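Residues determine shape. Next comes a sample protein:
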Amino acid sequence: MTVTEIAILPLISGSVDPDFKETLKRGLDIQNDWHIANFPHLPATLKGRASHCLQQVEDPGKIMITAEWESLEAHWKWIRSPENAEVMAALSPYVPSSPSDMVLLHLDGGTFGEEPVASPGELIPLLDSPVIIVERFFVSATKKEEFLGNLNVSKAAIDKVAAPYLVRGS
């Protein structure tokens, strides 16, 4: 099953500088080359894999990296690869080395994937929006259905306010 990776990384310097951006770009290119070699049947571009790097508005010292993976196992294969070790070593001057300082989430399905180009009157794809908000809710298993019901009731109002931008969530 497709999963969406969301990694939130704090930056040691507290801001994004040109050297970090270049190092991160090289890292994304290395990851993409690895992905093409290991999963040639899947999209071969960063955009096709919804692989993006976004900077938080409320805390510019944090970045969010997204990517879609064929499965959770496919992502862990990347994490354990020598290529990922190389990327992480290159990023080490910029991000803390402790996993406890980072957030890594996997969402079921494709969240940021490429949608058809919007035409007048259609919703604008999520990653073409000027701002993306990611919320995480912790709900006990016994209240999950009730929570989802309430969220779905609210979603219509959120969709209306956000239009023409796409809203995703479940």
About this structure: Residues 65 and 164 are 24 Å apart (CA to CA). The chain is about 35% helix and 15% strand. The helical segments are 18-38, 72-79, 82-91, 144-162.
